[in-house]
Amino acid sequence: MKKTTRFRELVASPEILMLPVAHDALSALAIAEAGFSALCVAGYGSSGSALGLPDIGLMTATEMLTHYSRIIERVDVPVMVDIDTGFGDVNNVIRTVRQVERLGAAALFLEDQTFPKRCGHMAGKSVVAVEDYLPKLKAALWARQDPDFVIMARTDAAAVYGLDEAIRRACLYAAAGADMVFVEAVTSVADMRRVNAAVPVPSMANMIEGGRTPFLSAPELQELGYAAVAYPCASVFTVVKALRAWAGHLKAKGTSAGLAGPDTMIDFEEYFRFIGAADIREREKQFFPAPTSDEKKAKE
Questions:
Q1: What are the b/e assignments for 235-268, b being 16+ CB within 10 Å?
Q2: Per-residue pLDDT, 288
Q3: Which residues make Cβ contacts (< 8 Å) with residue 239, sequence separation at least 6?
Q4: How far is Cα 109 from Cα 69, in angstroms, rounded to an integer?
Q5: Which of 29, 149, 189, 253 is deepest in the core (most CB within 10 A)?
Q6: Same domain, 196 and 78
Q7: Is 277 part of a structural domain of the chain?
Q8: Is residue 297 over pLDDT 90?
């Protein structure tokens, strides 16, 4: 089954689709190993991982798509990607959508912020007029080659103009053909329920530790009517915490010996297996003839 078809099926399933967000190929491996059916990759973690900088639109289209390609190539599950504001006008959006499809992504989302954009839970956001966003959304829908490729429209209008405007926009985006919508930074459970009652297509929630949206479990979000939920920050939050602990310990003690242990660090052999090195070594054997008995004796 195509990954696009699989992703569309997962969104349509009665069970909410959990989408942990990978910040690089290593984190994507961990997410896939845990058994998630799909994952996402987005600007927040990608900017932090690739640039060591915040999600304020600093990554170029080329940098972002190259980063995404490594993740998509490394895992077998469907991957949804973030293309921010589309990197320009309708022509840039068309090119980006087609590039993303060629990378093997299963879905993408396009937002209505102004450029340079900000993380959805940062202060100081602004959004473009609906009349400026709709042509880009229509261009994205026109550009896709695979009809199963999912295109989600994101609106950040709730933090700028209030929830009524965000819902109005989400409904307009759905009417224009968006397969899903994402109303970002909804601030109460009652408002989350309002979004899902009003919007006629599947919607996604965004769970950020310390963010503006109530932090709910997947079953709770499913009860509110969400089809999917993304976790955009947890991977980088976890990694920064662990790296700070390791670097601080090493600096203070001159060794990581006291920090190493099953709860804090894997060892060389476990990493060898996790990263796929053992499988690669096994794969290599099919390309080399087995040594003859004479060759074995010569080595001895």
A1: bbbebeeeeeeeeebeeeeeeeeeeeeeeeeeee
A2: 85
A3: 23, 27
A4: 16
A5: 149
A6: yes
A7: yes
A8: no
Residue 129, domain CATH: 3.20.20.60
Residue 229's alpha-carbon distances to 32, 41, 129, 264, in angstroms, are 16, 13, 26, 28
Using CA atoms, how far residue 62 sits from 58, 83, 140, 146, in Å, is: 11, 11, 18, 22
* Total-model pTM: 0.92
Is residue 223 one of the residues assigned to a domain? yes
Each residue's pLDDT tens digit, 151-166: 999 999 999 999 999 9
Classify the phi-psi angles of 137: left when phi > 0, otherwise alpha if psi is within -120 to 50, otherwise beta: alpha
Q: Assess whether 284 and 227 both reside in one domain.
A: no
Sheet holding 79-82, edge to edge: 180-183, 150-155, 107-111, 79-82, 39-41, 17-22, 228-231, 204-206
- Tens-digit pLDDT profile for residues 79-115: 999 999 999 999 999 999 999 999 999 999 999 998 7
C-alpha torsion 259→260→266→272, nearest 10: 120
Of the CA atoms within 13 Å of residue 9, those in its CB half-sphere come to: 9
Identify whether the C-beta of residue 127 lies closer than 8 Å to the C-beta of residue 156.
Answer: yes
Give 118-177 pLDDT, tens digit per residue: 654 656 679 999 999 999 999 999 999 999 999 999 999 999 999 999 999 999 999 999
> Could you give the CA distance from residue 205 to residue 184 in angstroms, rounded to a whole number?
7
pLDDT score of 250? 94
Confidence (pLDDT) at 261: 84
